[in-house]
Amino acid sequence: MLQRSRRRCEGTAMGAVVLDLRPGLGIGPFSLGMPISEAFAQIEQQPSIYDVVHVKYYEEDPLKLDIVISFPDHGFHLRFDPWSQRLRLIEIFDVKRLQMRYSNSLIGGPSTLATFVAVYALFGPTFPGIYDRDRGVYTLFYPGLSFAFPIPNQYTDCCHDGEAELPLEFPDGTTPVTCRVSIYDSSSDKKVGVGSLMDKAIVPPLPSGSLFMEEVHVKLGEELHFTVGGQHIPFGASPQDVWTELGRPCGIHQKQVDQMVIHSALDPRPRSTLCADYFYNYFARGLDILFDGQTHKIKKFVLHTNYPGHADFNSYIKCNFLVHGSDLAESFQEVNDSKQKITTSTKWDQVKEILGDCGRAAIQTQGSTSNPFGSTFVYGYQNVAFEVMKNGYIATMTLFQS
């Protein structure tokens, strides 16, 4: 698990923040189902509150474990599904550091203990929870919300057959204090808590017609097809065509000279810092479109996977592309066999099995030798080039016409 930190800024006292608790929906500005880019946007808007932020992910296989944004000073973290990069679970792991507001009442933080009796009084009656004897933890469930309480060894008999009388109080008159709070989507009616119960939290369904993670079918050498909106964007389309189909771009910038042009014997032009070509950036679709500066026609598409561990992470929302076909020498053809499809989850070894070995890679440093994530490798085929990370996952896929 690799961890990246932001530098602390002065001005926020530990435990000073108060966040609204919304069972089954979220906490403060963070809502279940939100893309990771929106979470980072909220963090950037309030730097005095979220001044220490850790980003954790599994570098060797970023699809295996959650991407986690952690706020150690405030005692909670956000867990994002690694494939969709949407928020699936919010965990308050140190309730004494975070004060929560629910129904005009406060709970947690350094001044208000989140005891079993206090939780029961604030959130009301519920069904008996689950006692995990191995962990010594009793979990109380509400829709989209759970509270975990450590049970001392001498009081385990209070949890009869995995259940307990509510509200839970020990024979000495004390009551356990919450050690963890979980906030999760309640639509699946699953109980989510600590340990294996944590894995049961799923991402809320997207609204009907949502364009987030829209599947984009790639017809090599010909076009992109957006499956939700139904748009077709072919090579050779004009900027007006793209505006009509995809709307206003998020950004427009002039292209720097292609560093790979030195390898082309067919292009004797001297290198310069800028060229006449220009990009339309659709960050919310994970897409860049390159136009020829002379003809003003599309000449390239760049599709981004937005994997953590890449220099462009969080600059784009993940493009959910799908490439059919196994023989680049032939025209595009749809193949039903999933092994003959290239998606954002396809690793480089699988690409080589489908397309064949293209030989040695060009090494790319993302414009800076000081890039903390290291170099990537670019492999070229007819009509397509793959930028591959050291862990074997595709960072970008560039489409062009040979």
UniProtKB/TrEMBL annotation:
Keyword list, A-Z: Membrane, Transmembrane, Transmembrane helix
Any Pfam family matching the protein: PHAF1
InterPro entries linked: PHAF1, PHAF1/BROMI
PANTHER family documented for this protein: PHAGOSOME ASSEMBLY FACTOR 1, UPF0183 PROTEIN
Originating organism: Trapa incisa
Higher taxonomy: Eukaryota, Viridiplantae, Streptophyta, Embryophyta, Tracheophyta
Family indicated by similarity: Belongs to the PHAF1 family.
Name the UniProt record assigns to this protein: Uncharacterized protein
Transmembrane intervals: 106-123
